[in-house]
Amino acid sequence: MLLRTPGVYRPQTDTWLLAAALAEAALPPGGDVVDVCCGTGALAVHAGLAGAASVTAVDISRAAGLSAWANCRVRGIEVEVLRGDFEKALRDRQFDILLANPPYVPHRRGQPVRGRSRAWHAGTDGRSFLDRLCGRAPDLLTPQGTALIVHSAVADPDRTITQLRDGGLKAAVVARATIPFGPVMRRGVPHLVAQGLITPGQQYEELVVIRADKTRK
Q: Which of 13, 186, 189, 208 has the fewest CB within 10 Å, making it most exposed?
């Protein structure tokens, strides 16, 4: 059970897919972990319980930061909560493990993005956050750090992998799951079809977890 402040998006299948990928990644315990776009802090909790040396949670939402702090503290996990855009909040810091369930749902041009919708809306192609995250990931990782990023296939996993590799990381899809469209995706079907991101009549999406490793040269 996770405490959730009003206005914070409830963890969905993508969160649990990423949590499972973290458990299966066989990463050594005792590292410094950052949960980007932390929401309720579900991933920060998983990292803390798995033996992280330190846990940092970042979100633009004050309510999300409060939820993450509460969910970690009730489990005895010390957590540093940072509010704001991840690039400004983290600056030049580095982590052994970066976890991210960022906004990735495409939305039509001119559609307002406010409140809870900031947790999922990400530009007309779903890449407005992902592109920035992929660009910064190499700098946010320690010399042998690992990033695990989850998003929908409608936001172009191949582009994510290419951008991460261009940054010098070893990247590949390590987990997949196919699920029915939820309410947010169903509302966006006309835009997704018009952009060629899904086929007419499509009712399912594929989620992917991408692992990116920084290796010493």
A: 186
